Fold each of these.
Amino acid sequence: MRPLVFATRNRGKLYELRALFDGLDLEVIDLAEVAARLGRELPDTVEDAPTFAGNAAKKAAEVAAATGWPALADDSGLEVDALGGAPGVYSARYAGQHGDDGANNAKLLAALAGVPPEQRTAQFRCALAVADPAGLLRDGVMTAEGVVKGVILDAPRGTGGFGYDPLFFCPELGQTFAEAGIGPKGQLSHRARAFAALFPHLRAYLAIEQ
Ligand code: IMP
């Protein structure tokens, strides 16, 4: 089986992707497995593109070039309409320190103080990119996006999920993502939708290549 590198250090994402790839003649490995096989760690990609798709494509291209294997990368975040699309590509480090969910949520609530409910619309966006070092993909890199729309509440609700989930009310579920939990969220999340958009293209590409 030939490897496909998923450019992540998140085990949860790796397991999700492996399940999706069941039945394809492809071994999905993450960056930890890459390091074990190559005997060296790959440098982290500097995510400085202005878009999610740009960051995902950059990550996928760098990992494919460094390993010689096809690579898939993701990038995601929250876009709030009343804030002109912020925090956007800065979602993970909105309040300064990377991945400080509590501080990020507090900063978001402060930024939206006094904004009425009908103007608190937002969306999660996820971009996926696949790069092939052999240059076999027509445009060098294959990308797909998924979006889920919601409203930012004025106080957190629910204990599940991560990131901005407690503040993100999803009308399709009638709950915040933190109240809904991983199962219902996983059915319609931005990430699920991005994978759904990518898969037909990826399967077609892999069928051609095998
Ligand atoms: P990453 O693409 O996994 O690095 O996510 C970037 C940041 O966007 C995270 O740190 C979260 O703040 C936010 N984010 C992305 N997806 C979600 C989600 O499904 N729920 C809540 N926050 C998310």
Amino acid sequence: MRVLVTGGAGYIGSVVTAELLSAGHQVTVLDNLSTGHADAVPAGAEFVEAGITEADPVLAAGGFDAVVHFAAKSLVPESVTAPELYWHNNTSGTLALLESMRRHDVRTIVFSSTAATYGEPDSVPILESSPTRPTNPYGASKLAVDHMLTSYARAHGFSAVSLRYFNVAGARITPENSQGERHATETHLIPIALQVAAGLRPQLQVNGVHYPTPDGSCVRDYIHVLDLADAHLRALERATRDQADGSDGQGSHLICNLGSGSGSSVREVIESVRRITGRPTPAVDAPNRAGDPAVLIASNDKAAAELGWRPTRDLDRMVADAWQFFQQLSPETAGSTGADHG
Ligand code: UFG
């Protein structure tokens, strides 16, 4: 298949691009490099440096079977202080992309949605039928796109799959060209803990130690980026099949959570980092981070039933792969704590 990957210079987009290429697909990456890295685009993919509102000429050139859409702003705190960036990039930008797709008759799409569409859950595991009450503009901007896709499926014959990621971690390690997480501003637990393990930060803060969880710290559902990539390839096959079957012009929109179905606490993650790196990794108790739910765990039964997908890599494997990738980074990239994120 010929696939357009938006955001293919970012963390998850570059891993999925690499896996699409290994599976024999032809890939064009569209990325404006606002947070991505040109050298993260896997060799073998065509690269177009442009934003999603500029997809028209690329799609007009013809021959695309599907779009896998990652390009987005994804920093929750930034979305609270500058919501316009999120509505503009994530929501309006995606509308422009869908319109380009419609114009050029490319109606198959896999969309990078998020657990943040659910907000604070009433109970876990979170099902796809659970209420969607995002607590920040990031989650709201992605939920709007999920609604957009439902309506494009119904009205315009799109076949879409939205994948709602929980906490993504790990890296794709190969001898030639690894892909992993390297955000200009790091806010995520595992990369920060690895910076501490490497001695680039003195200590790590455990954000909240009195939550109603077994050890008092927040519990999250971590998923290896390679398991996530596997789900995207399955989703692409599924959307393609739905598109071929939908001869009456009726499209489809499937929404699936991607998580492991079990949780790890912040303290358990830090223990895993200590175990894998063999470094002390000092951590101190700190106040709750605003807006953090105590426990987020996915039900992945729907992804299993609809896509035949089950994750296979555990937390230690995620930490080990992330650590290996981290050690391959240049010192300035690995230690970056600046003010941006991809
Ligand atoms: N944490 C710490 N110390 C740190 C960093 C994080 O204790 O230095 C804690 C957080 O407070 C949280 C847990 O580790 O309890 C995980 O935090 P992350 O920032 O790694 O991930 P989040 O669960 O906040 O965010 C993830 C995705 C978001 C998405 C969100 C949906 O990264 O993109 O889930 O809920 F929006």
